[in-house]
Amino acid sequence: MEGSCPLIKNILILDSEGKRVAVKYFSPEMSTMSAQTAFEKSVFTKTQRTNARGEAEIIMFDNVITVFKFVSDLHFYVTGSQDENELILVTVLQALFDAISLLLRNQVEKKTVLENLDLVLLSLDEIVDGGIILETEANVIASRVTMRGADSDLPLSEQTFSQALASAKEQLARSLLK
After folding, report:
1. Beta strands 57-61 and 64-71: pairing type?
2. What's the Cα-to-Cα distance from 133 to each of 37, 54, 73, 89, rounded to whole Å?
3. Which one of 39, 51, 56, 114 counts the least CB within 10 Å of its CB?
4. What is the SS3 assignment for 104?
5. Are 128 and 113 in contact (CB under 8 A)?
6. What is the pTM of this model?
7. What CA–CA distance (Å, rounded) separates 45 from 94?
8. What per-residue string of b and e applies to 58-85 under the rule 16 or more CB within 10 Å gives b?
């Protein structure tokens, strides 16, 4: 039965000029770069004059429901089909923003997002896969992205580069303090 599972068409993070910072597309009609760029330009142009600084705003255009929120110099968007539940889309948008806020220690701005793009892209993957919503709890998303809650003494081969670097720094600091 179609419509039984909410689906996300795409998640966008654009800068204050409408340029791509991080995006994830799940709909087949957006499979080409030109279609994606045109959509990003269109959604940015349609929303740039609104004041979505505090709460998320909802618009519908081109038969797509778009929920969006502006924070600092970034614009966050989540879209779904015209028959999708807006509250679910807003929940995904808020989960994305809250997870990124946790991971970036509330420094949600273009510079820090680009410096930590790996964490942002992993957050997108933890929230939605193939258009299907996997998780909307920001603490769970942030924990999965940083792999906390798993064994803290993972073998070096199973650690991400940033985890391995942090582990090496910690061991170096301990050896210097002895």
Report:
1. antiparallel
2. 24, 24, 26, 10
3. 51
4. coil
5. no
6. 0.78
7. 22
8. eeeeeebbbbbbbbeebbbbbbbbeebe
SS3 68: strand
Beta strands in the chain (DSSP E): 10-15, 20-25, 57-61, 64-71, 74-81, 128-129, 132-133
Positions of the chain with pLDDT lower than 50, given as ranges:
1, 150-151, 156
Give me the CATH code for the 8-147 domain, please.
3.30.450.60
Tokens representing 47 are 């929303």
Closest of 88, 86, 84, 74 to residue 135, by C-alpha: 88
Rounded Cα–Cα distance for residues 98 and 95 (Å) = 5
**Beta-bridge partners for 14:** 20, 75
Closest CA relative to residue 15, chosen from 81, 88, 113, 94: 113
Q: What is the pLDDT of residue 54?
A: 74
Record the tokens describing residue 24, joined without a space: 């994830």
